[in-house]
Amino acid sequence: MGTVVAVHSYRGGTGKSSTAASLALLAAAGGRRAALVDTDLQAPCAHALFGMDESAAHRSLTDYLVGRCEIEDAAAPVAGSAPGALYLVPARGGPDENNELMTHGYDVGLLREGFDRLMDRLRLDLLVLDTRTGMSNETISALAGADLALAITRADYMDCGVRDAVALASRFARSRRAVAVNMLPAGTPPGPVRREAEAAFGAPVVSVIPYCPDIAALGGGGLLVREDPGHRSTAGYRRIAEAVGTGGITEAAGTGGIAEPAGTGGGR
Q1: How many helices (H) and strands (E) does the chain have?
Q2: One-character DSSP codes across 41-55
Q3: What percent of the chain has pLDDT above 70?
Q4: Could you tell me the pTM of the whole model?
Q5: What's the CA gap between 46 and 52, in Å, rounded?
Q6: What ranges in 128-229 are assigned the alpha helix state H?
Q7: Of 78-87, 109-118, 130-139, 207-216, where does the model show the most confidence?
């Protein structure tokens, strides 16, 4: 049985989508079968992280939700993901599809059914759900169907909305909870930040990732884990992937995750 991870952030600008995509890519690079589903139907970006043109998507999550295809038909193989396999289900094939959803609506129950079907038909070891920021029907469906809810927050702004997302995830018996702290300012020791986040959100912190200008330079058009596998920030994403892959996440705050290397604070 594979693992479903919902990656969520209450606000934009936390690196949520980059984290979700990096987790899926690292799983495939480690020999696992993984898929990433972009569930942000209003403002999708996962396609851009893998260099895909939104309008070039052969099928999308929207196509599945309106009945034009099965969800596995929307799963596009991502090149360069050997020795495993990585599939991407883009949210939509263009803005017109969003207008279609807003006009006609859809059965939100199809999301949970689709996630389960995708796991089965593609024989996945890992399914990563990139959720919409804030709270929406898509986000709640993703959290309800996940084995792990991974909340992303910035080190310089620990949003109380993350606490709400963690609390919501705790209502679903299937879902464990964890937090990743992103954008640690240069020179800031990770230990106190980790302890503050675990106390604030009541969930284990699996990684504290340093701020990286190189990620900002990519501008949402690429992934650091692919462009520079040896980068210190890439190591932060690897800690998340390792914790997910080994099941090394506990519910007790202060016991989850893997210790940060000494001196983590930015740069390479």
Answers
A1: 11, 8
A2: SSS--HHHHTT--GG
A3: 80
A4: 0.86
A5: 9
A6: 137-144, 160-169, 190-201, 213-218, 224-227
A7: 109-118
